[in-house]
């Protein structure tokens, strides 16, 4: 979002961030103005505390935890959003699709807004599986029926958030969108950083929905100390389970056991939640770090082992690097399904990665992706599409044109 905000500023917009207080250091580091909201529900330290808990969870338990967190973020927006929007007096809003509540406040205040998806976008139409399912793409009536049933099951989990939204809609007198399972999505523009070439094929999207491509700006990445002098020049495997679901020591141990081999080097980025001393045994060339300059490391990598978070997947594809994916929860199963669909990697289900056969199955997947040029060729194909598209520039142009049309002169 900071990359997108900075790009919009190049279009002569005055841009500020409206977010929970914990985001302020990152926003300020990007040279952007910041306004907090929701301090009553999210006092300092509360959001990181919840993310630490989330890092220990997986599957349905993690999804439910995430939905509970989203409900409180929605509640914070509905309780405090009107105050901060009246105070800041924006002409328009660019809202992350997962940040519920502020869209309803914007509608109440007659503020135009667009939605952007940093994570995998939601498709409730039935033309594709919802992003939290690992189902393959299936066209025809059977696939459509399966996808609709999956959507209905998810909406039951999402019901508390919808109840909050419906209550606010009734309280402020907004028109009720009876047929809309997620009311007040932007009909001006919805953008996803997922490239069309990485999505399931479909022509059902409305004209205001846009696949763009990754919103990357390497200049915004914080400087990270990394032992570059310890890279051996051997084929490099980079492994990271992201920033949210990286609390499973067992998965990292399986990755180490499966990926280490003579003639290659493993770089393992484990985050803040685990003790590096407890992961092993390590070969002489394996590097374990808490964080890595991911974009730069991927430029040197032959393979990325990932939790299938969309950002890491797109960064791997931007570098033309195939993947072994271990989806944990939330939208990661859907990203994994697209990795499998596009042939840009091999997916190892979480249950397999946590089983007694984890090392064997991971080693098999690693060897397959490293030795079969099919996967690197497909990753290179999408890399070329990303380079042609320039997702960050396209997204900023679309938002600029859309909101200039929507904002009426005073």
Number of domains: 2
CATH superfamily of the largest domain: Glycogen Phosphorylase B
The fraction of residues in strands falls at 5-15%
- Number of DSSP E strands: 12
Class by alpha and beta content: alpha/beta
CATH architecture of the largest domain: 3-Layer(aba) Sandwich
Structure, described:
This protein is of the alpha/beta class and 410 residues long. It has 2 domains: 2-218 and 389-406, Glycogen Phosphorylase B (Rossmann fold), CATH 3.40.50; 225-371, Rossmann fold. 44% of the residues lie in helices and 12% in strands. The chain has helices spanning 2-9, 24-29, 46-54, 59-88, 102-108, 141-172, 249-259, 294-299, 310-318, 332-342, 350-353, 358-371, 373-389, 391-406; strands at 16-19, 33-36, 93-96, 113-117, 190-192, 209-211, 236-240, 265-269, 287-289, 301-306, 323-325, 345-347. The strands form 3 sheets. The protein has a 6-stranded parallel sheet with strand order 9-8-7-10-11-12, sandwiched between helices. Strand 10, helix 9 (310-318) and strand 11 form a beta-alpha-beta unit. Helix 1 (2-9) crosses helix 14, helix 4 (59-88) runs parallel beside helix 5 and helix 4 runs parallel beside helix 6 (141-172). The longest helix is centred in the middle third of the chain and has 32 residues, at 141-172. The model has no long low-confidence stretch (mean pLDDT 94).
């Amino acid at each position: 979002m900071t990359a997108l905000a900075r790009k919009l500023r190049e279009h002569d917009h005055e841009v500020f961030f409206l977010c929970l207080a914990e985001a302020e250091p990152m926003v300020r580091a990007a040279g952007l103005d910041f306004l907090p909201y929701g301090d009553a529900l999210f006092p300092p330290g509360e959001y990181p505390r919840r993310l630490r808990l989330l890092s220990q969870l997986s599957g349905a338990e993690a999804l439910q935890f995430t939905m509970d967190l989203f409900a409180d973020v929605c509640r914070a927006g509905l309780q405090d959003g009107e105050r901060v929007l009246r105070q800041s007096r924006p002409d328009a809003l660019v809202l992350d699709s997962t940040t519920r509540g502020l869209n309803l406040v914007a509608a109440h205040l007659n503020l135009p807004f667009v939605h952007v998806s940093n994570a995998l976008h939601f498709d409730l139409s039935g033309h594709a599986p919802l992003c939290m399912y690992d189902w393959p793409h299936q066209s025809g009536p059977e696939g459509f029926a399966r996808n609709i049933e999956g959507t209905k099951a998810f909406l039951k989990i999402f019901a508390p958030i919808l109840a909050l939204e419906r209550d606010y809609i009734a309280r402020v007198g907004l028109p009720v969108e009876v047929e809309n399972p997620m009311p007040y999505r932007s009909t001006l523009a919805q953008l996803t950083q997922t490239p069309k070439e990485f999505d399931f094929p479909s022509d059902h999207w409305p004209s205001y929905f846009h696949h763009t491509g990754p919103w990357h700006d390497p200049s915004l990445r914080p400087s990270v100390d990394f032992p570059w002098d310890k890279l051996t020049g051997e084929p490099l495997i980079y492994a990271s389970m992201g920033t949210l679901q990286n609390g499973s020591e067992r998965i990292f141990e399986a990755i180490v056991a499966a990926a280490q081999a003579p003639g290659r080097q493993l770089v393992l980025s484990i985050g803040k939640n685990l003790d590096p001393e407890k992961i092993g045994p390590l070969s002489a060339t394996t590097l374990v770090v808490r964080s890595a300059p991911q974009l730069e490391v991927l430029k040197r990598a032959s393979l990325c082992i990932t939790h299938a978070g969309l950002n890491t997947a797109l960064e791997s594809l931007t570098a033309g690097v195939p993947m072994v994916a271990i989806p944990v929860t939330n939208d990661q199963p859907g990203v994994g399904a697209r990795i499998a669909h596009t042939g840009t990697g091999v997916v190892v289900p979480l249950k397999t990665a946590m089983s007694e056969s984890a090392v064997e199955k991971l080693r098999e997947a690693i060897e397959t992706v490293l030795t079969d040029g099919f996967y690197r060729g497909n990753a290179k194909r999408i890399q070329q599409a990303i380079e042609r598209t320039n997702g960050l520039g396209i997204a900023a142009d679309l938002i600029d044109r859309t909101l200039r049309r929507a904002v009426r002169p005073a």
